[in-house]
Amino acid sequence: MQLTGGAHYPVVVVGGGQAGLATSWHLTRRGVDHLVLEADRVGSEWRNRRWDSFCLVTPNWQCRLPGFPYDGPAADGFMLRDEIVAYLEDYSRSYDVPLVEGVRATGLDDGFRIATTQGAVTADQVVLATGPYQVPRIPRMAERLPTTVTQLHSSQYKNPDHMPAGEVVVIGTGQSGCQIAEDLHLAGRTVHLVTGSAPRVARFYRGRDVVAWLDLMGYYAKGIDEFDDVDAVRFRVNHYVTGRDGGRDIDLRKFALEGMKLYGRLVDADQTSLRFAQDLSKNLDHADAVSEGIKDSIDAFVAANGIDAPDEDRYRPVWEPSSEPEALEIKGISTVIWSTGFRRDDSWIRLPVFDGRGYPTHHRGVTSVPGLYFIGLPWQYTWGSGRFGGVADDARYLVERITEQRAGMHWIAGLPRKTVA
């Protein structure tokens, strides 16, 4: 499909990832004429910003895009990167999505005029499905490192052979940092992992994937408005775990036993060394405590509901740091991988919908600007918002609001002019 500059659409969806496609599916079902703009190709975020061995961390059965649930042979498995891309491509072909690829939205102004790389269009309503992972976040500290060190953001990492020979420092222990460190470790590279406050979760417990337990317990259906600490929930770091090789825990203590070097939080750097806070033990203990706390909640659920589930011994730390490393000499380090997340770039959106931090203000994706919506934000309403497991619910909710506003617009348009206030 080609973009027609100057055209007007009832609804324009900006972003053709899972959130944008799920919205389009519901709009199509309701017969709402619309356009989906995708800056690259369907699945580009998964294709371009994930490493070669990347896989889902939630089981395939959680892939529940509207009208297109996972129906492959490995419901309890974890799709690899290329399988995820294929899933999205197949989804985009499963219905008549009005998709324009290779066209980037560059401006959104009053009157819902959307400037793009191929001309401008206008809309009655706009859904922004551009996702949370837009611009790699790398601290200014990176500028202090010598030019002899190759520096990558986690979104640029592909595989162990894609980097220079030598020792590697991975900074950050969110999902990406831990999984990249494991990928390098399994390939026999010497890895220095700089930890943070990210929690972890067990892969399996008492006979089931922990995701299955949490789903059964209703955790994934719990709305953000049911929490007292909304901001703490919305901006918290994801628990680290992996779906690799059928799924397993990521235990940094086990990595340390096998030769990986662990450090506390990075606090300073210069041409010769990296320096760390003395919080390695604290970070490891915190990650374990969160994991064990989730097990506590599962135990309580099993007992309260009389569920027949096998008993399981609790985790015991397999390694404790004998000291807290204060510094690491850069000599011998060939590569630093910054697994430090992303920031949003909404500078092209020139409408008053952002708070002092630059975060979109909304209720379940509905903003204070009538007709403007967001979808795909982390914890937009539930844990699954923006993910394969929960974005369908958010898309359905927004399309209900879209059709309600359209009905109101049509009602007002049909009134005699003199009666309209």
Automatic annotation (TrEMBL):
<dbReference type="GO" id="GO:0004497">
    <property type="term" value="F:monooxygenase activity"/>
</dbReference>
<dbReference type="InterPro" id="IPR024000">
    <property type="entry name" value="CHP04046_FMN-dependent"/>
</dbReference>
<dbReference type="InterPro" id="IPR036188">
    <property type="entry name" value="FAD/NAD-bd_sf"/>
</dbReference>
<protein>
    <submittedName>
        <fullName>Putative flavoprotein involved in K+ transport</fullName>
    </submittedName>
</protein>
<dbReference type="GO" id="GO:0050660">
    <property type="term" value="F:flavin adenine dinucleotide binding"/>
</dbReference>
<dbReference type="Pfam" id="PF13738">
    <property type="entry name" value="Pyr_redox_3"/>
</dbReference>
<dbReference type="InterPro" id="IPR050982">
    <property type="entry name" value="Auxin_biosynth/cation_transpt"/>
</dbReference>
<keyword id="KW-0560">Oxidoreductase</keyword>
